[in-house]
Amino acid sequence: MATIILILLFLSSLPLFYLLTKQKPSNKKLPPGSFGFPVIGQSLSFLRALRANNGHQWLEQKVRKFGPVLKLSLFGRPTIFLAGPAANKLVFGNDAFTPHQLTSFTRIMGRRTMREMVGDDHRQIRAAVGQFLKPEVLKMYVNKIDEEVRYHIKMNWTGHQTVTVMPLIKCLTFDVICSLVFGLDRGHTRQALAKEFVDVIAGMWSIPVNLPFTRFNKSLRASRRARRILSEVIQEKRRKLEHGLCPPHADLITCLLSLSQEGCGNEALTEEEIVDNTIFVMVAGHDTTAILITFMIRQLEKDPAIYARVAQEQEEIAQSKAPGEALTWDDLNKMKYTWRVALETLRMIPPVFWSFRKVLKDVEFNGYLIPEGWQVLRTTSMTQMNAEIFPEPHKFDPTRFENQSSVPPYSFIAFGGGSRICPANEFARIETLTAMYYIVAQFRWKLSGKDDSFSRYPLPSPSEGLPIKLEPKGDM
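That's the Cytochrome P450 716B1-like sequence above. Prediction below.
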């Protein structure tokens, strides 16, 4: 296995040597730094740090040595690392930087997602998805999210003495996405899609070797099967729309299908674009929100005072409602402190700790050259864990977000920024608050695992999935 990894790293490093040899002489200087070991660069060291949850310290050490703009080599490509609010503004606001994913991620997800597109193509797809995810539309779906959460709690939490949080919450977020994004009720199609989705996710960050029995190959095959399922769903929804059997905003798929029919001058999206972007929304919404809810549950157990304030807020809402009455948009807007807890969780444990951008043309920043063809690494922690921006950054303090306008621009970037800011942040807010309402108002809990640590690779995950012992408060 070690030999295979070294061979793959050698092959993946060829773009590094190509870019370095073809680079034209320039009066502008490259940032300080080191490309590390031949072939492997700093890739293995970086991955080890992420798995040990030391990624921030690993990057801080390099910034202390070379400064907030530095060069290194990661995953076979020459890389510029940028730190600080000004750097975040540059990356999010400059069209010369476009998102760049690992090959395995792009191959499995699809090449026509709004994350991969640039220019007018990106704007069209983003606007189409944004039509469904804007608050005035999402208001109509609060009841459906409430129904999915209540069913999940009844089937998986109520009557259980212990549960393992992360896998359960991932099941919940998948069911919510199936309901709202695909318009799929519980049944055979949702079950079939869930089965394929597990394998799709498993290979997203795998080594992209398409040989039988590799994780990447298994994930590619699952992706093809999931696409066939979604194609059938799309054809059925297109038929219903044409015959007036469903409204144009019944779910994300019908919204995308009907976009070009509303007289807005929009071009019709291809089926590939609809499939790629529904899979993208499914993957993005599934993991990120599940991570947030899981780590909120973890934090509330560790801090009884914060749990008490969240519980009081949720119980006051519960007492104002009739038995069995669903949450409303107004109820969610009353959960101000709970959402501050969510934002502080995102500050300390963002679902996406790091990401890459590809440089489309030469850019100058702070007197240094960021060359065309290189990649830029950005992380959330360099501002969100910066003591000059957030005093006592390792202290969990939801009051930081009582006045969000006081947070310096491009410092809290858990949802991204600029034209690439996450379009689903309001959807995440609704789903998170609804889940926390039913969990906190019905249960107290204690952590029951032997290992409370977590890894950040590829995404934050408690080492044991966060097992907890439940103590029911009583029926709502």
